[in-house]
Amino acid sequence: MKKKFFLLQLLSVISGFAFSQHFAVAKSGVFTPQQKKVLLLKDTALNKSLILFKTNLHVNTDGTPLSYHPFDLNGDEKALNNICNAVAVRKDGSNKNLCLSKETYKEALSVFARFRDSGFLKLPTGYSITWENVLVPQMVDGKKVPCVIKSGEYEGYFGSATSLRNGLSSDKGECDCNDQVNPLKIPALVLVGGSNNIVRKFGAKLGDLLIAYNPTNKHLVYAIINDFGPPNNLGEGSVLLNMKLRGDTTFPKKRKDTFKLSISSDIIIAVIPDSRTFQVEKPFTPENITSRVEQWLRECGFQTGQAYIDFLESSVVAKLK
Q1: Domains of the chain by range and CATH?
Q2: For 223-277, what is each residue's pLDDT tens digit?
Q3: How far is the CA of 220 from the CAs of 235, 308, 315, in angstroms?
Q4: pTM value?
Q5: Which distant-in-sequence residues (6+ apart) come within 8 Å of 24 by Cβ?
């Protein structure tokens, strides 16, 4: 009886693997800023697609208030990131972001510190600061300023936003912190910015599900696209995504800890286009993201995560070189 059951299981895996072979390369292209190959796989019978590419992963912290602190701008003590990853500081009449150069980085911090010391009500003369893309705004004396949390576990930190929201109608928390797709709690990927890149052209959008695979240690992680990033970098994962892919269990406490979670080896990312509307559950959790991805995989013939890994390694990895 046990032998029969084993044979039935084996046949199920084999048939699922064969079914998955219906995925074939429909299009290919190159993400030109990093010269990385991108594949669009399609199963025309099922009308399902995958966008695949290999990339290393920087770390993104936006969405947790622990990211940025008004009095720890460099992330030396309690902030997980430096403020220059949330803002852009420019001299009047110039498009150059002072945050992006080692020569002007300290100047950028000094300018932002003066902005902070004014209660965020007055820009230093001769400078502009762009901050609303990441820091959550609030109205003070009729003026929009960065929201700073006044109580609770995040007291003193800036509210930090993600483009994808949990869709809460109540209990959003100060600075709407509970409504963000928190990178410490959710495995997530930042979608490369700009509209004229191959990943976006193949259909990847905010809220789409994805599968991340680390060939080095065989770790497979199901995740979601929760934000937009710069137009020149394919790979930026949330703190939890990178931790799971690396096999780390200790959360960062300051900037240096955060940056150590970067992954320099290639991770294989498979974005599932149009999955943002597939069996949606909110607020987003690792559990409901996993459930959605597993259901999508089963519908494609992948009965287990290992079956998907086998498909990658036998049919896809060589094509990404």
Answers
A1: 13-60+183-320 (2.40.40.20), 67-161 (no CATH)
A2: 999 999 999 999 899 999 999 999 999 999 999 999 999 999 999 999 999 999 9
A3: 16, 10, 17
A4: 0.92
A5: 41, 42, 43
